[in-house]
């Protein structure tokens, strides 16, 4: 039977998972279709050989260190020797047919990307969530499988579809997942972070974590307020560590939900070490850090070609000269690039003075972004010298990020900030007459 003699419409596919780790797979073709196929095959650990005169830059980059083998020529009979699986992915239907027919003769399963009926193996729409692999086949309309897959993955991610991962309390081994929730907008948490929340039995959440995510949790999930308010009420770090370990040892899946990234001024390593000391399995899910995301959402890049080759992120919770401060403000003042200050609302006057004292120009463009990524995001532009007065006049309160550097001057007058998929327009507000160098943008 040749590759072109089978009719797909009347057949029912037999779904099967191919264990290709360490096994040879030949992909004929080097364009975008081949690239997509190679990505999935390499994720499965296959030993991939690509046969094509030209390949995409991404495939060439994989071939250079030997991650795959590239035969830089046209397909020839015999190229499937030793293969467990084959893919015909050229833009020449004649070549694809020849590959399919050779595979048929050799009893090698083959996918032809341009001829569903000529394929002895149909590649499902595939999605991965942790160690869970979801594949969806559709006999007549392959594009329908992708729609169904997206719906299934969304359900697994938000918890509306149970995946059986959660064990009854007291059975099995508990674990801790340190999740970075991003700068505030719930849409900016990672897929893995969302999945961890959907599987949690207990969530210890900071006040800067996306609060709306807590509302979507099942009523069976215990939520513990582990907030640390600036210079106010807070749960001691030692208590947080103890609760993580206690609940995990009781067999629960525990999520520590933080704003930003757990390892960027989030004391995540202390929690990680506490779990290791108690032999509790612990996973870190990185988050979108506000140090980069919040300026970006205000239209301010922390780097820009030809303008800055470095940026530094500094904790401003202690002022310059404080005996416990570990920051070398003299070195930071001499930098030409971008300085991003977190937790620096109260200490802004002292930090600005130190930067100017150690060499930063007083007229350096500076921006303050408060409530970044939320519907109330507010961006105020000023200069480094005028920063203390600006923050006082505008009543800036935490959470806020401020940025020093020429990149601030790149910001346009029309900006956008996400809010549930909508875009807010920002209108420029006139600066006070005594501060002609200052602009203020307010989310409407």
UniProtKB/TrEMBL annotation:
Origin superkingdom: Bacteria
Keyword Coiled coil among record annotations: no
GO BP terms: cobalamin biosynthetic process; methylation; siroheme biosynthetic process
Keywords: Cobalamin biosynthesis, Lyase, Methyltransferase, Multifunctional enzyme, NAD, Oxidoreductase, Porphyrin biosynthesis, S-adenosyl-L-methionine, Transferase
Disordered as annotated region, ranges: 414-444
UniProt catalytic activity: precorrin-2 + NAD(+) = sirohydrochlorin + NADH + 2 H(+)
Active site: 206, 228
Entry's Gene Ontology molecular function annotations: NAD binding; precorrin-2 dehydrogenase activity; sirohydrochlorin ferrochelatase activity; uroporphyrin-III C-methyltransferase activity
Biased composition (Basic and acidic residues): 435-444
CDD domains: SUMT (cd11642)
Pathway(s) of this molecule: Porphyrin-containing compound metabolism; siroheme biosynthesis; sirohydrochlorin from precorrin-2: step 1/1
Domain Tetrapyrrole methylase: 176-387
Alphabetized InterPro entries for the sequence: 4pyrrol_Mease (IPR000878), 4pyrrol_Methylase_sf (IPR035996), 4pyrrole_Mease_sub1 (IPR014777), 4pyrrole_Mease_sub2 (IPR014776), CobA/CysG_C (IPR006366), NAD(P)-bd_dom_sf (IPR036291), Siro_Cobalamin_biosynth (IPR050161), Sirohaem_synth (IPR012409)
The protein's name in its UniProt record: Uroporphyrin-III C-methyltransferase / precorrin-2 dehydrogenase / sirohydrochlorin ferrochelatase
Organism: Blastococcus tunisiensis
Lineage: Bacteria, Bacillati, Actinomycetota, Actinomycetes, Geodermatophilales
